[in-house]
Every structure is written in structure tokens, then in C-alpha cells.
Fold:
Amino acid sequence: MSSTVSPSHFKDLLDAEPGDVCTRSLCSYDNESGKYSLHAWGRQYCIDPANETIVTVDNKKSLHGYFDLFLIHHLLGAQALEPTGEWISEKDMPGGATFFRGPHAVPTELITGVVGDDLDLFRKMCESFGGTPLGMGDAAYSFTITDRVPVAILYWVGDEDFPAEAKILYDRTITEHLELDGVYALMVSICNYFTS
Structure:
């Protein structure tokens, strides 16, 4: 059982129509086992709503526990929309400027705490995570988290006035696929990936 996912989310997925889930989220479904399969950030995940489990099928190291929460939010909420290619920040999302504060602040200090002012390290890490270079910041990479959810990570090295800074951007369609708590689960997973 996934400790970060509420049983009610698994029940909602169990009650959903598999064909609709697959069309919206671009996952697949096995009628015999009742399990969903979703490719997410370079890994293949098996989601079993009846047994309340989410596991990688290739035994790769799991991402942060919140990634399970993101995955099930994605299956439940994704819409059949292609990415627009237009990047927004969490503050551009409806309600985001208020939501992503205090306990829901984006923990990008986890990234800067590892990378510091070493742009080469940032580039190597992003490339090892499957990133594609972008022409933003001092360095930036885009990632296909799922086919519906691309993100970008921007990085600036520090100077005498400002410390190093990392920022996560999202395709404008993100709020069509996820509620803000689902976006937060993804944010936390991304930031913690740099510490693993």
C-alpha cells in the first residue's frame, strides 16, 4: 500500500472507467489484472487500485513518496490536452500565489543546496534525469514527466548580492490536469530528486 496516497484516491480510480482514464492520461490498462501502467519520468509505473499499490515495473529506485500522489492525481484528473509549450510558474496558476506559501512553498533550496554554484553539476544531473537543454537562466532543462506534463528547471548561479536560485516552470495546461495539491506533490518530488 502506498503510504502517501489516501485509500479514497485508489477507490476513485477503481470506480473510474478505464478507457476514459487511459484516453485522458495516456496510460494503459490490463483488463485481466485490473492494473494501470504509466510511463513517468523515465520509469514505468504499475498502479493497482484494488490493492492500493504503486510500484515501478523495472525495479528502479523510486522517486520521493509524493510522486505516487502525483501519479494518482494525474490518472484521476488528466485531460486530453496537448502541451502548449508556454511556461508558467506556480504563481501564475489560479490561486497559486496564495497556495504556494508557508508549508506549500516550493522547496527549491533542496536543489541549490546540492548544486551551489556548480553549473556543470546542474547540467550533468539534469542530463542524467533525461533533461533537454533550454535557453533560459544560466542553465535550464525541460523534462517530460508524463506525456501530458512537461516541466522546466531553471538555474542561476549566485553572486555577491544574491545566492544561487532554482525555479520550476510548468506548461500552461498543468492546471487542467492537476489540482494545486497535485502540483505541489510533483514539485516536492522534483526538488527531492536532486538530493537522492
Summary: Strands lie at 28-30, 35-40, 43-48, 53-56, 87-88, 132-134, 139-146, 149-156, 165-171.
